[in-house]
Amino acid sequence: MNVVAVGGGTGLSTLLRGLKREVGETIKELTAIVTVADSGGSTGKLREIYNIPAPGDIRNCIVALSDSEEVMQDLFQYRFKGDGLEGHAFGNLFLTALSEITGNFLEAVKLTSQILRTRGEIVPSTVESVHIIARFSDGETVEGEEKITEYGKKGNVRIEKIWIDPPDARAPIEAIASIETADLIVFGPGSLFTSIIPNLLIKDIRSAIKRSKARRLYVVNAMTQPGETDNMTAYDHLATLKKFGGIKDIHAVVVNTKMPSGDVLKKYLEEGQEPVVPDVGRIAREGVNVYSDDLIGEQDSYVRHDPERLTDMIVYMAKNEILSGV
């Protein structure tokens, strides 16, 4: 089957790290459509100087799908220290330099993917320099992925509308083609408003998904995110994706049911994050197929979906709903 994964941030790279093992097995072609609206850190600085799409999430996805030697993967994730280059990831600088040399960000992504021998294709959702803008319930309008999240953390406000600038940003033909030939489209895991939905704000992407005959699967986050999804249950995540992303029909949802360990949970609660309530019955009553299990692992005191367990669940879903011919 052909699989398209849509998202960004650590969530998408975690998913890809697991899915790449299935390339050549249950997966014929794997494509990651990645948001390029990030505005923080090394990425944000490079965007200001070179007016390019955000390279950070692209870099992470390339490394996640890479079959190159570990030293090459470590090289692309290396962050410089000291004045001048402090905080910049080598991979971000590499993609920026290659974009300048070729005059084409998409070509830079393709060449970098070849160098790191990725088991799948990475495509930015647009090659234009786009920014996210959100209007909150208090009437405040905030621009920039990082600033939107920070403003939301002030509390007692929710995002009421979200859009991109420029609003008519186009998607690469490679992204459209992969969606149109997909058997399965996976959304998430990842920051709902700043990693997943921005891809769907690209009109070409949204229209192609609506036309596609692929099954649509949403992987709900394991933890809420301060400033974006405070107090939201799994059902709320799904409803928000459909509302703000403009995608009405989601056929299946993957939900984590495992609680983090005591010490890790305490740390998250202190930071305003809590486990997403798996209200699977409410989702199922909407006619959406629910796949739930213990899907998280803990690494360096962070809660993340375990790539292997998540991939097993997605393959199980695909065998039930796609590969069985049902």
Q: Mind telling me the CATH class?
A: Alpha Beta
The CATH architecture comes to 3-Layer(aba) Sandwich
Number of helices: 14
Span of the ends, CA to CA: 14 Å
Question: Which strand order do you get reading across the main beta sheet?
Answer: 3-2-1-7-8-9-10
Assembly status: single chain
Q: Say how many strands there are.
A: 12
The figure for the number of domains is: 1
What's the name of the CATH homologous superfamily? CofD-like domains
Tell me the radius of gyration. Answer: 19 Å
In the predicted model, the low-confidence regions spanning at least 5 consecutive residues are none
Estimate the mean pLDDT confidence: 94
Helix content range: 40-55%
Counting helices, strands and paired strands, the structural category is: alpha/beta
Largest sheet: 7 strands, parallel
Order of helices and strands: EHEHHHHHEEEHEHEHHEHEHHEEEH
The gross shape turns out to be globular
Strand content: 15-25%
CATH fold category name: Rossmann fold
Question: What does it look like?
Answer:
The longest helix has 15 residues. The strands form three sheets. This protein has a seven-stranded parallel β-sheet with strand order 3-2-1-7-8-9-10, sandwiched between helices. The model has no long low-confidence stretch (mean pLDDT 94). The protein has one domain: CofD-like domains (Rossmann fold), CATH 3.40.50. α1 crosses α14. The chain is globular, with a radius of gyration of 19 Å. It is of the alpha/beta class and 326 residues long.
